[in-house]
Amino acid sequence: MIGEGTKSTNQRRHSYVQEHVEVGFFTDPTVCIGCKACEVACKEWNHVPDDGFVWSGNSYDNTGHLGASTWRHVMFVEQDRQKGNQIVGSHSLGNGDGEDPFRWIFLSDVCKHCEDAGCLEACPTGAIVRTEVGSVLVQNDVCNGCGYCVVSCPFGVIDRRPKPLPDAGGAFKCTFCYDRQKSGLVPACAKVCPTESIVFGRLDDLRARATHRVQELHEHGYDDAQLYDPRETSVGGIHAFFLILGEPEAYGLPPKPQVPTIYLKSAWTAAFATAIAAIIATLLAFAFFS
Amino acid sequence: MLTTYRLTEHHTAGGMSRFLSHLSELQPEMFAEISPELARELGVKNGDYICIVTLRGAIEARALVSRRIRPVHLNGKTVHQVGLPYHFGTSGLVRGGAANDLLSISGEPNVTIMEAKAAACNIVPGRLPRGAAFEEWINKHVPTGGPANLHPEQPPLDTAKGGENPPGGHGKEEKE
Ligand code: SF4
Ligand code: SF4
Known about the structure:
The complex is a heterodimer. By secondary structure, chain A is an alpha+beta fold. Chain A has helices at residues 16-19, 37-46, 118-122, 148-152, 178-182, 188-192, 203-219, 264-289; strands at residues 23-27, 72-79, 103-110, 128-130, 136-138, 159-160, 171-172, 198-202, 225-228, 240-245.
């Protein structure tokens, strides 16, 4: 059976914000049906405008990537590989004898709400804050649209909204439905997900659930199932983590995400050394030509 | 063979969903799914415009080439499948060729909804000509060789009133 129905943490009221409980999303593509209900529910609840009507020709993915007006993005990945214990057909022309594996994977991508968040560290105005539940929130009435966060996100999530969309200029991303959570509601995307591919709940519970799910999949022949939860890099763990089949690169996820601020020390050292060298060069130039 | 089907993003012919921006942006254009084998045969690339022609009409769509669509082998013959979402039409935020234009009207009497979901078709790479050029074009490309495409109420072609519409119109009793 898929999911736990009304008993699921996706459908229950909670008081995580009041109790300061770390929450998260666990997203499992092996049960996702690619319905994009999460994308639509997110836009409906958060009044996110449409992102243009452009047909991509890339499977059923006309969303493309996360951005200022796309806070959930369902990826459609087509691969010439076997999925679990799937029976492999050999119907393709010119390949009548050999096996001909093929799989279509859907994965709903979202802001990762990093433990050490690049956007939060780069924000000079204090518009980006950490909430009681561990999520990263942009306060749009404080954001001045400088764009430092955009280049500092290791996952390319946050972006400024272009004209002529409403609130153009400000930086936007998933809010983890902080407004809903404060009132004991579940984030809109998890609430509508019909297969519980997106599970919302306590981070520790979700990590246990995810480990169990990977084991279960391994037993069912999904040899390449693994968790994408980078905790050993400078990002220090993410609140929205994923189960993936195969390599993270196929889903546009960096295998070793790093917070750009770890390069601050070397960057300042290099800048300082360059400045000293420039001064010496200028003085030498004067010494020679005067 | 073409077959028509639904996408999760749209509702029936799109009369409700193609007027909503949050759904229209997710499937903004009419496409036809074809196999890489058929694409190679036609010299078509992913995203190219193709025209789908049947005895009833012709529409244009973008080619979506995917291994999800596979040719089938029937009695030693290769039959290619063409997948067409039937959600598009002439008004709304996003518009496109209506797949139902390609099918004969045949109502399923119990549920009173279109019964036809598949038909033989031709695929012609390129855009669909408009205006006067269209008639010449479709006569050239319409599939041939099949049985006459008559409504069940029309008398067969080899009878006296062959192919004529029944008096009083379809589905009505003939008045004395
Ligand atoms: S948590 Fe809320 S804002 Fe974030 S993706 Fe889900 S619905 Fe959108
Ligand atoms: S709502 Fe759930 S099943 Fe539907 S696309 Fe989103 S993650 Fe997948």
